[in-house]
Amino acid sequence: MSAEQHVLETHDLAKRYGRRTWALTGIDLAIPQGGITALVGPNAAGKSTLIKTWVGFERPTRGGVTVGGIDPWKDRSEVLGLVGYIPQSPSLYDGLSVDDHLDLAVLLRPDFDRAYARRRLDELGIPGNQGAKSLSGGQQAQVALALALGTRAKILLLDEPLASLDPLARREFLHVLTDAVRTDGATALLSSHIVTDVEQACDRLVVLGVGRILLHETVADALATHWMANDGAASSEGTAIGSFGGPGGERLTLLRVESPSAGPNLRPASLEEVVLGYLASGRALPGEAAA
Amino acid sequence: MSRIGSWLVLSFRLNRWEVLASAAGVALMAAGMLWFTWQLRTLAATEPMCLDPSTYFAACEQSAQPFYELSSRAELLSYLGWAAAFGLGLVLGVPLVSREIEQRTAGMAWALSRSRTSWLLQRVAFAALVLVSLLLALAIASEALAAAQLPTHHLDHDFSWYGRRGALIVVRGLAALAVGVLLGALLGRVLPALLVGVFASALMFTAVSLGMDRWVEADAIVIDPASGDREGGRYLGQRVELPSGELIDYGELSRRGLSVEANDEQGRLFATPADIGHPERIIGWDRGLVVPGRLYPQIVLRESALVGGMASLLALAATFVVSRRRPG
């Protein structure tokens, strides 16, 4: 592990699919130990690709990645021992019950903590004998989370586990995740494009544009240093990041202001506006500003 | 539950449809083979002399008719058994990796298991166990059927029903399993892998058959086709023995500008029917190349080693593919 206690790192990471499609272009990122980091970005931003390179499922085209100082492509087995992973749209085995999944995890990974995973599921009232096929989307996500947590890994990589869940299921999932991370002192990276959920659960925020990092800091810092201004009022205060359409059709600009004077035209930005501002900065097309 | 018990139960649940369908198919085939065996034995017991060429008498033509009719139907079943080796291998092998990729369960499984090789080994070992058990039953049933259909043959030293009975059924099934696993891992889709697997298995079987013919040629003996020495042997093809003693095939004969249009009762070959009766115009003698029946166990062992070796290479290739590929 590096001296700065960064458990997940990338150095000039680039990943290309085929001959022309670049999913990631020169990413430098270091996620410190502990807490939950949200990896936010639009579809096709490269979130899944980034996570898969950390799990050793994708080989970098250029640059490198490390997990706890280990290159997952060179020593995938070692890295998988450190990592609990939930793939995008986690699929469980249709023909197996919930308990069968836990048994399978023990078979695949002898140090899997079945009792711990079972306890997590018991707390949610998910019966062990229920077939995976008959579980709701939220319950399936919880089983996938229990499988990741049962590894007792100190690093959790969760690839859009909230995408298909209803608001209540999302809230329950995040509750279980934050509880587990705090209890075990783990580090979690949660990719999502639902910013409101992330705001409540995450300590750090990484905004990924199309293949590149647009913002990486703590949620608290992001909220403290970003302000919103109506277009035209922004010039004298801080650095304009990006503009997008507001709910009433007005044009809003996100500003990065280290010491704001909090003038009449400025108001604190919400985390969603911070993300939108950075995403708008990453793509300059007028039609996309209203995203 | 013990670790092995847990592995067996979970593996069965993960592959239950293939296992149940394969078991049902084999049970039907084996039952059919045993029924034919019983029927043939019953018929053979009524006229035992008619089934032995040395004791065959004129009245046998009619009395042995039911035996031969049933025998030809039973032989059809043996071809089904031959095909089952490949079919079962593919049905059990293809989904092992491809369905995991298709249904997106591979990501979770491969992240839970620190080693994809051990994951694959667990999956393949169960499929191989089921396959060997089923094909062994089929191999034994087909051996019994062959013995009932050919009551005067010593099948331990006889190439009759070669590849349709005994150990080769099991070995070929294992090779088809390896083909299925590799194609499933490469293509990541069950149906396309199954279809390509049928062609790949047919190709592999043809290649092995041709390769084996070459391999056993050195052990073959030259016979006069009219002599009846072919009994129980593996016939490799027709040859021409030239007056110089050289043995060549018909392709080589043609390349030398010779053609055979006629032969006499002694197996002598001539360029035209008009040459018959002129010994000085003889081109050569009709000969057959046959591997003697006594070499049957040795040849089965050789083919088993060859096919087993190919299966091992395919399994290694599948392991390599699984270790490198994306989970989908």
How does this model look, in words?
The complex is a heterodimer of chains A (291) and B (328). Chain A is an alpha/beta fold and 291 residues long. Chain A is built from nine helices and 13 strands. Chain A has two domains: 6-211, Rossmann fold; 220-288, no CATH class. Chain A has a six-stranded mixed beta sheet with strand order 5-6-7-3-8-9, with helices on both faces. In chain A, strands 11-12-10-13 form a four-stranded antiparallel beta sheet. Chain A has a three-stranded antiparallel beta sheet with strand order 2-1-4, with helices on one face. Chain A is globular and about 60 Å long. Chain B is an alpha+beta fold and 328 residues long. Chain B has two domains: 3-216 and 298-324, no CATH class; 234-291, no CATH class. Helix content of chain B is 64%, strand content 8%. Chain B has helices spanning 3-14, 16-46, 60-63, 65-102, 106-112, 116-149, 167-187, 190-216, 250-255, 296-324, and strands at 221-223, 234-241, 247-248, 262-263, 268-270, 284-291. In chain B, strands 1, 2, 3, 4, 5 and 6 form a six-stranded antiparallel beta sheet that branches. In chain B, a hairpin with a 5-residue loop joins strand 2 (234-241) and strand 3. In chain B, helix 1 (3-14) crosses helix 6 (116-149), helix 4 (65-102) packs antiparallel against helix 6 (116-149) and helix 4 (65-102) packs across helix 8. Chain B starts with a helix and ends with a helix. The model of chain B has no long low-confidence stretch (mean pLDDT 91). At the A-B interface, helix 2, strand 5 and helix 3 of A face helix 1 and helix 5 of B.
Highest CATH level, the class of the largest domain in chain A = Alpha Beta
Give the ordered list of helices and strands of chain A: EEEHEHEHHHEHEHEEHEEEEH
What radius of gyration of chain A results from the CA coordinates? 20 Å
CATH architecture assignment name of the largest domain in chain A: 3-Layer(aba) Sandwich
Oligomer: heterodimer
SS elements, strand count of chain B: 6
| Helix-strand sequence of chain B | HHHHHHHHEEEHEEEH
Named CATH topology of the largest domain in chain A: Rossmann fold
